[in-house]
Amino acid sequence: MNEPSVIQTRGLTKYFGGKPAVYELNLDVPRGCVFAFLGRNGSGKTTTIRMLAGLEQPTRGAGSILGCDIRALTPDIRARIGYLAEEHQLYGWMSVQDCGEFQAKFFAKWNGRIFRGIAGHFALKPAARVKDLSRGERAGLCLALTLAPEPELLLLDDPGLGLDPVARRALVESMIYLTRKSDRTIFFSSHQLADVERVADYMAVLDQSVLRACCPLEKFQESVRQARLRFSGAPPALPKIPGLLQALRTENELRVTCANYDGETEKILRALAPLEMEPVPLGLEDAFISYLGERGEKSFILSELEAQP
Amino acid sequence: MAVTFHINTGSNTPIYKQITDQARLAVAAGRLAAGDPLPSVRALAEELVVNPNTVARAYAGLIREGLLEARAGRGVFITRKRKIYSRAEGWRRLEPLLDALIGEAMVLDFTREELRKAFEEKLGQWKHPKGGDRNDE
Predict the structure, then answer these.
(1) What residues of A are in contact with residue B14 (Cβ under 8 Å)?
(2) CB pairs under 8 A between A and B
């Protein structure tokens, strides 16, 4: 990478009590990309984002954002970062328009056209009171407030949380609209893999406080693969396979899911001498679930049920 | 002529590949002809609600294959000369599809003769702009 990353962390770690919330995180986010930060609930995504935004002090390790140490963010740098918190903090008594005018006072740069544009995209009426807004409308308002100062880096903490499909689509459209300026970087956490598939270039996967993947989206999809092996009788015992995520055993079939599936994996599987072996393509969601789901060998729950008297 | 792209998320096929597949099919079916423009990266990205880089990657792939050409400042167009794959590579790509077709037909209890006839019939329906000859116009 020629240009320095807009976000870079090295060994970034945060403990709460004796428990690590984020452990030894090394992250590089290139400028101009849409970066999806994925992981199950409680995996440390919010803590990471809060550290990046300078709202949480790391226990140890280093991090920089827009070239500035995250322990010492200047007001100048902060003004170039748009942070959208997971829970939308707004004053209920304000109107949509009040919110915009109030927020504008905190920023040197404020683009009212963007504010009105995004608010309009979520069908918000300027005179509507915040306390009367639906969850999707509040999300739209918060997004408009975050985008109006035209930050070059956006940190969005699960912006799609609890949104209905229409509001989620409006959110995704807004994110795509933002990519019109090619130097704009979006770093967002999400559980909506369909949305991630639409907007993201890169993805990182956090699993129990540890980073488990960080790569372009299609690379992830290519390297997590599944093969179905058919045998005449019961499948043989599984040898040691590097990168094995899951193996599902049925009467005469073995379904093996591996990370970093390559020629070597193929060779090991072929050596089991199956009657037939075919690749099973995985969508992003299936690949993700295999990647983070319980590891090891399983059989169908149904066959266990059948075995009951 | 124009073509309408559509994409599915949650599919086994990555989005960029859905776009390249649909463009190829549209050319093969004669819905897109040499010289026809495709929407700009930006326009297609916003229409499909996908990251522009994804569309750009799909277009770049099609340009590499020789199906599309970029004309500076004017956009992307279907090329006149379609020299896409060597015969060997073409066969390598076609064979799994033939296998899938024949396999499915056998499972559904079609006879070889029925399949042959259906294949001929279908072939006749595809009005290829070049009358179905090779890619060496």
Answers:
(1) 217-218, 221
(2) 50
* B62 assigned to some structural domain: yes
Q: Does A167 touch chain B (CB under 8 A)?
A: no
Spatial CA neighbour of A9 closest among A21, A24, A20: A24
- For residue A199, the chain B residues in CB contact (below 8 A) are 50-51
DSSP string, A50-84: HHHTTSS--SEEEEEETTEEGGG--HHHHTTEEEE
CATH code, B37:
1.10.10.10
Query: According to CATH, what is the number of the domain A7-217?
Result: 3.40.50.300
Instruction: Kindly list the residues from chain A whose CB atom is less than 8 angstroms away from the CB atom of residue B52.
Output: 176, 179
A42 shares contact with chain B (CB less than 8 Å) = no
Quick check: is B135 in a domain? no
| Domain-located, residue B4 | no
pLDDT tens-digit map of B11-60: 888 899 999 999 988 888 788 888 899 999 999 999 999 999 999 999 99
Same domain, B58 and B101: no
Complex ipTM more than 0.85, yes or no: no
Q: What's the sign of the alpha-carbon dihedral A166, A199, A115, A83? A: positive
The residue of chain A nearest to residue B11, with distances taken between CA atoms, is A283
- Do the Cβ atoms of A239 and A258 come closer than 8 Å? no
Task: Output the CA angle A141-A147-A152, nearest 5 degrees.
Answer: 160
Q: Give residue B38's domain range.
A: 15-78
B23 and B72 belong to one structural domain: yes
Residues of B in Cβ contact (< 8 Å) with A194:
9-10
Asked if the Cβ–Cβ distance from B52 to A176 is below 8 Å, we say yes
Q: CB distance from A287 to chain B under 8 Å?
A: no
The domain total for chain B is: 2
- Which tens digit of pLDDT belongs to each residue from A139-192? 999 999 999 999 999 999 999 988 889 889 989 999 998 888 878 999 999 999
B95 with B73, same domain: the answer is no
Question: What's the DSSP call for residue A131?
Answer: G
